[in-house]
């Protein structure tokens, strides 16, 4: 973008404070800032600021539970059938896996990318290596490479790639791994102005787990998958030490039932657990976040004493490639987070606020489910001790300590 054009746009959208920052930058910085302005959708940002004034209303939404298929309730023959379908697809090279590693991992507080975190096992494996072990095992068993796409962020991409290089891709063929960067959006202050970061540029933040679809498409990854003949894509987080990205049963369940999007759910441990649960909103498969579910609904139990809304979304999702491509064409809804964010004021001073001062906009991966044909979404019940133990906090629940314990129990160490 040329300076004249930038002046016009910034004035039109009430963002002229950026010009003051521009003046303070050196030539290289000036160019970088103009380049940054190029990819910002000003109309979208204006609409997002308007959204910060809205409150979420559920009054006219009819919420009903959504059931999952429990594999243990299927017959041995049915389970075998699903497993065979899944295994055949893996052998034919129809499965790819995506790891979302673009998050900031603020709660854990590890200085590098979250995937480089050493879990503290006797082997000192990092989260990335733990994830890689699963696909390596599949590769050794079936002889087919499962392509691993890793979503990074602008901030952590170089450190992530460097880590993989240093560790020689943990022994997995390098050609089986691709990295792509997640898109970002400017942060806005309470008066609707773009936040300026400590270096004088527009402060941007990753656009949330829902950004995976658009970022996959934008970086040519969906095209790459199609060229490789991939039909099914598992998408999971970087921090679940029990994630089984290549579970043939889950894949078989998805493909054999002709679902287009499925999720492996885990029963909520207790009513107030901070996880979203699947439900039907006006008949449409959706996830209701823990911050949104009314207490009474969260605690409701059925005749057997089980939670009615207990099918938790644990970021263990599988999509058909065509569906993935379709979702990537549409914008998922943005959720607004009010955050504390340091910034540079108009005098060029860096301010560290004590209370939330800025808005960050994120999309969530589970918002993809309402976009899929109603009967083409399926839930498959996983087991906590086999499928889910995340590293979120430095201590206490969902910490390295609990993940280490669960990992060692599962792997019988
Ligand atoms: P979380 O929401 O738990 O965030 O992400 P986080 O970054 O790991 O940790 P906190 O909240 O800052 O402490 C769940 C998964 O989604 C990925 C994360 O990397 C993690 O695997 N994610 C999240 C992204 O890839 N991009 C995002 O913008 C957000």
Concise account of the structure shown:
The protein is α/β, with parallel strands linked by helices and 413 residues long. It contains 14 helices and 17 strands. The strands form five sheets. The protein has a seven-stranded mixed beta sheet, sandwiched between helices.
Give your account of this protein's structure:
This protein has helices at 3-12, 17-24, 27-38, 42-51, 76-91, 127-142, 157-166, 211-218, 221-227, 248-256, 295-299, 321-329, 384-387, 400-410; strands at 63-65, 95-100, 147-152, 177-181, 184-186, 188-189, 204-206, 232-237, 261-267, 277-281, 284-288, 311-320, 335-339, 343-344, 350-351, 358-362, 377-381. With 413 residues, the chain is of the alpha/beta class. The protein has a single domain, classed as Spore Coat Polysaccharide Biosynthesis Protein SpsA, Chain A (Alpha-Beta Complex), CATH 3.90.550. The strands form five sheets. The protein has a seven-stranded mixed beta sheet with strand order 4-3-2-8-12-9-17, sandwiched between helices. It has a three-stranded antiparallel beta sheet with strand order 1-10-11, with no helix packed on it. It has a three-stranded antiparallel beta sheet with strand order 6-16-13, with helices on one face. The chain binds uridine 5'-triphosphate. Uridine 5'-triphosphate is lined by residues 100-107, 114, 151, 182, 206, 208-209, 211, 237-239, 315, 392.
